[in-house]
Amino acid sequence: MDAQPGRSVTSKVLALLDAFTPATPALTLTELARRAGLPLPTAHRRAAELVAWGALERGDDGRYRIGLRLWEVGSLAPRGLGLRELALPIMEDLYEVTHENVQLAVRQGLELVFIERIAGRHAVPVLTRVGGRFALHATGVGLVLLAYAPAEVQEQVLAAPLERYTELTITDPRRLRRCLAEVRRVGYAVSDRQVTMDALSVAAPIRGSDGVVAAISLVVAHDRADPLALAPLVQAAGRVLSRALGTSYRRSPGRVPSPTRSETQ
Amino acid sequence: MDAQPGRSVTSKVLALLDAFTPATPALTLTELARRAGLPLPTAHRRAAELVAWGALERGDDGRYRIGLRLWEVGSLAPRGLGLRELALPIMEDLYEVTHENVQLAVRQGLELVFIERIAGRHAVPVLTRVGGRFALHATGVGLVLLAYAPAEVQEQVLAAPLERYTELTITDPRRLRRCLAEVRRVGYAVSDRQVTMDALSVAAPIRGSDGVVAAISLVVAHDRADPLALAPLVQAAGRVLSRALGTSYRRSPGRVPSPTRSETQ
């Protein structure tokens, strides 16, 4: 029986997509039905439609996975690949001069989503997953995105329990509020061993036509980090990217334009 | 009135997503309804559900765009970001030693989809869009993917008209058939000014447990290209990546595993 018989078909289809997470990227039909809260026959019928369209793919092992067609459509999200395409050359510049990890993130509700990262081969290990989520109150990019978020977003984050990742994670709402004010004052954020005890990140805002739309950061080994030296580099990258976004805004009414379709080799 | 009243709700929801293309990433409700073949009220109701979930976003300009949540779910596609995460370090190596354009593509039906590219700053311009599609018979990666595709795929491509991009594009099915046999014999493909008159690409296959799953290429300026010197480089990258995929196959039943979720900074 359908756990929620009043649900719309659209919500059932979307529940099937929600069943897939980074921890569960491949699901049997039984797992899929259970996670989506659908009876097995309903899940089977809807999943078959999604497979036919390409939103799901079914492997030789019988498991369902997210299909390439959904990735293709998802790549049209202006805040995803559109932003990433604009940012990548600037991220590459930052990587060339530092050989450290470079990250790009946007806020999605009360969390952040990593849009891109360049992992330094000999830099401190950061195992960020592009498309992965994280809390706002601990990382450099998160502190920037939170510092410039609408007041109601800040209040919601400050009102909820703040997860502790290390002994240096800020979990006191009053301290976090002061930290955010400082981020706005200096124009960058430093997360010093607030996520892992070996790493420090320095992040700066990227501004669009309606405020801060993304954040860029360098993540370096804590013991060789000089935040005061890194901050101008990251801020400069943020400014170049803000200007690139501004130019795009004048060309297009979109929040972040997609690159134009063009010839290829 | 619904143009096709017998359509399932799932197909209507998917038709709304299909309406968005690289050329039309932002749509008004009227455009969306027309492209999806749905009556305005139906399109409005379904679009509202998609916005609530995050599959679509509606801007200040009233237009709909693909939402970040869909990009997030799409990022779980094993043949998309999963493959890309495995390939990126190897693509970066290839870029470091050549400073030329590096591309990664998979076959989707009778076309290819670009999964990743590193654009050389001073290399010949290639304006590939990640997530973008292209024909199989012209590019280096396309020739590789076609050469190793199932026979029925080859026959379908050979039976259809072959679009001419330059005077050197192979549009004769018999010549293309001979070219594909040569690709299989030598283990790499060269596309010499077959897409644009200034560029040459050299591509090699990436093998998974069930044959060739992707292709990697270097795209260089035609006038300074030495395909015989580039081929071993690209082939070596393809082999390293095939081995990386093989290792992953033993760990996971998936076609291409997603990277594990892990801590981040």
Automatic annotation (TrEMBL), chains A, B:
<dbReference type="InterPro" id="IPR005471">
    <property type="entry name" value="Tscrpt_reg_IclR_N"/>
</dbReference>
<dbReference type="InterPro" id="IPR014757">
    <property type="entry name" value="Tscrpt_reg_IclR_C"/>
</dbReference>
<dbReference type="InterPro" id="IPR029016">
    <property type="entry name" value="GAF-like_dom_sf"/>
</dbReference>
<dbReference type="InterPro" id="IPR036390">
    <property type="entry name" value="WH_DNA-bd_sf"/>
</dbReference>
<feature type="domain" description="HTH iclR-type">
    <location>
        <begin position="7"/>
        <end position="68"/>
    </location>
</feature>
<feature type="domain" description="IclR-ED">
    <location>
        <begin position="69"/>
        <end position="247"/>
    </location>
</feature>
<dbReference type="Pfam" id="PF01614">
    <property type="entry name" value="IclR_C"/>
</dbReference>
<dbReference type="InterPro" id="IPR036388">
    <property type="entry name" value="WH-like_DNA-bd_sf"/>
</dbReference>
<keyword id="KW-0804">Transcription</keyword>
<dbReference type="Pfam" id="PF09339">
    <property type="entry name" value="HTH_IclR"/>
</dbReference>
<keyword id="KW-0238">DNA-binding</keyword>
<protein>
    <submittedName>
        <fullName>IclR family transcriptional regulator</fullName>
    </submittedName>
</protein>
<dbReference type="InterPro" id="IPR050707">
    <property type="entry name" value="HTH_MetabolicPath_Reg"/>
</dbReference>
<keyword id="KW-0805">Transcription regulation</keyword>
